[in-house]
Amino acid sequence: MAVVGAGWAGLAAAVEATRAGHRVTLFEMAPHAGGRAREVRHDGLVLDNGQHILIGAYTQTLRLMREVGVDTEAALLRTPLRLTEPDGRGLHLPPGPPVIAFARGVWGRAGWSLRERLSLLAAATGWAARGFRCDPAATVESLSLGLGETIARDLIDPLCVAALNTPANEASAAVFLRVLRDALFSGPGSADLLLPRVSLGDLFPVPATSWLQRHGAVVQTATRVRELARDGAGWRVDGAAFDRVVLATPPAEAARLVEPINATWSASAAAFGYEPIVTVYLQCESTSLPEPMLALRAGDDAPAQFVLDRGQLGGPKGLLAFVISGARLWVEAGRDATLAATLRQARHSLGTLLRGTPEARLLITEKRATFRCVPGLERPPMAIAPGLLAAGDHVEGPYPATLEGAVRSAVGAVDALA
Predict the structure, then answer these.
(1) What is the pTM of this model?
(2) Could you point out which of 214, 239, 243, 323 has its C-alpha 20 to 30 Å from the C-alpha of 175?
(3) How many whole angstroms separate alpha carbon 3 and alpha carbon 392?
(4) How many other C-beta atoms can be found within 10 angstroms of the C-beta atom of residue 28?
(5) What is the pLDDT of residue 401?
């Protein structure tokens, strides 16, 4: 079997296929595996191309990480969901049954009026009563009408942009509700935050690659596949024969390879719109934030929605990572404007929490970080042709562009081929 693409979906497909007894060859056009969730080396630092946060509901991702030898307890800092702001306020879910934990978290959230708390609990009850389903054409903004500006600003908008990387006025309410159901209400620990203590490379791509090589798989990096072609009941990948193929490349690359085989599928994969994510790394002497992650209030002159203290997550002390999701307007504004606005936001939002003057270390822009998760989005199906299936977070499914969505897609593709 061939797997084309060694992002998290391709690696997951290769591991699952190898476990099932297939002889796997994995092709990756980059020098290293990891795709859009990879480590970056800069000026002696091992950083990430973006701050990927896992949650307890990522069951398939966690299972495969353990399968390839990752000690998930050591590699990930697990805490109950905490959306803490620099002033200490925020939504804090205690451990326990999810419905009770959510109600207690809402009830104890400082800064919300009694009316606002009751309106959110009533809305959540209504969503649950309807099976977390809604009009497919609805946006997250329309879903939150009646909750008030405060709830939208403090909870709905940051959760939406964190999960879907799409602004609430454009984001799919149907997908958002599915994420809420699985994350907040599917079982104890499902909403827990899992913050990586190691680089994204060490979290899965590096150990997965080593595991594959130890178990007889062939891993070919820096190898861009030029052509897929039918070969009787099987396929040829740049002339080499395989009985089955899992195509786990980004959508545009998949569209190029599939166009001569299935033009309809190719057109669907090529039609995506994308949202960027920008990560700004600032160094601020010996700063240590009250928690490893704080929620920030984004606005016209405040780009970031979250800041992570990398010093508390295995990195150098005082290294802060500011995450700008749904960053299209900031990418258009340019690097200098984004850096300047992030520095202003850091000084204004964190204030006395900072020890010294923050200085810019690195700005990373992932221009096609995720597809724009809008209402009515048509995503290409898993099946392309007999013996040729697609895997990736962009493939038809219930989740937005997340690591878990990519991994689940890969597991499903291998199961379907079997």
Answers:
(1) 0.94
(2) 323
(3) 12
(4) 27
(5) 94
Q: What is the pLDDT of residues 220-245, one digit of tens each?
A: 999 999 999 999 999 999 999 999 99
* Pairwise CA distance, residues 306 & 202, whole Å: 23
Angle between helices 403-417 and 8-19 (to 10 degrees): 40
Give kind and range of the element (H or E) at residue 163. Answer: helix 157-164
For 111, residues 6+ apart whose C-beta sits below 8 A from its C-beta are: 89, 150, 154
Give the chain's domains with CATH numbers: 2-45+56-65+200-272+375-417 (3.50.50.60), 81-191 (no CATH), 274-371 (3.90.660.20)
Q: What separation in angstroms does the CA of 39 have from each of 42, 203, 206, 248?
A: 10, 10, 10, 19
pLDDT value, residue 42: 86
Assign residue 387 a region (left: φ > 0; alpha: ψ between -120 and 50; beta: otherwise): left
Tens digits of per-residue pLDDT, 116-171? 999 999 999 999 999 999 999 999 999 999 899 999 999 999 999 999 999 999 99
Pair 251, 270: CB distance under 8 Å:
yes
Sorted by sequence, the CB contacts under 8 Å of residue 9 that are 6+ apart come out as 35, 248, 391, 392, 393, 406, 407, 409, 410
CA distance linking residue 25 with residue 40, whole number of Å: 25
DSSP state of 154: I
pLDDT score of 322 more than 90: yes
Residues 6 or more apart whose Cβ sits within 8 Å of residue 313: 77, 195, 196, 197, 292
27 pLDDT more than 90: yes
pLDDT digits (tens, 9 = 90+) for 168-195: 999 999 999 999 999 888 888 899 999 9
- Confirm if 265 and 384 have CB atoms less than 8 A apart: yes
Query: Residue 163's pLDDT is what?
Result: 93
DSSP structure class, residue 172: B
- Beta carbons of 268 and 379 less than 8 angstroms apart: yes
Q: What is the pLDDT of residues 394-418, one digit of tens each?
A: 999 999 999 999 999 999 999 999 8
Amino acid making up residue 55: I
